[in-house]
Structure formats: structure tokens, C-alpha cells
Design a protein that fits this description.
This protein is 68% helix and 0% strand. The longest helix has 19 residues.
């Protein structure tokens, strides 16, 4: 199993928190938000990359 340690783990944690905050602030439906958050939580690195490429954008970004 892959283990996160040190500075790399903190960076991944910060990026995932940023992704979750952005997902919550997006204009999508609640069901979609839950699915995106679960993806980021269950697969931290891959989920973040998928969210960054194809995920919902925050409400501020669409204005």
C-alpha cells in the first residue's frame, strides 16, 4: 500500500481540502457534490487529478 509521509502528505491534504471546498461552492446538484467529494476522499491523488480536469468549477469561477 502506498504511504503518504512528510511534506508530500501535507501537500496532498491541502490540495484535497481545496478541492472539497471548491466542490461544495460549485453550482452543481447535491448528489453530484457528494459523488465528487467521495471520489476525492477515497482516491486522494487520482481523485484530485480527475476533479481538477473534469470536475465542477466553483460558482465564483463561472461569473
Amino acid at each position: 500500500m502506498f504511504e503518504y509521509a512528510g511534506l508530500g502528505g501535507l501537500i496532498i491534504l491541502a490540495l484535497n481540502i481545496w478541492a472539497i471546498v471548491s466542490i461544495v461552492g460549485s453550482g452543481t446538484t447535491n448528489g453530484s457534490k457528494v459523488l465528487w467529494i467521495l471520489l476525492v476522499l477515497i482516491l486522494p491523488i487520482i481523485g484530485f487529478v480527475i476533479w481538477f480536469v473534469a470536475g465542477p468549477k466553483s460558482a465564483r469561477a463561472s461569473v
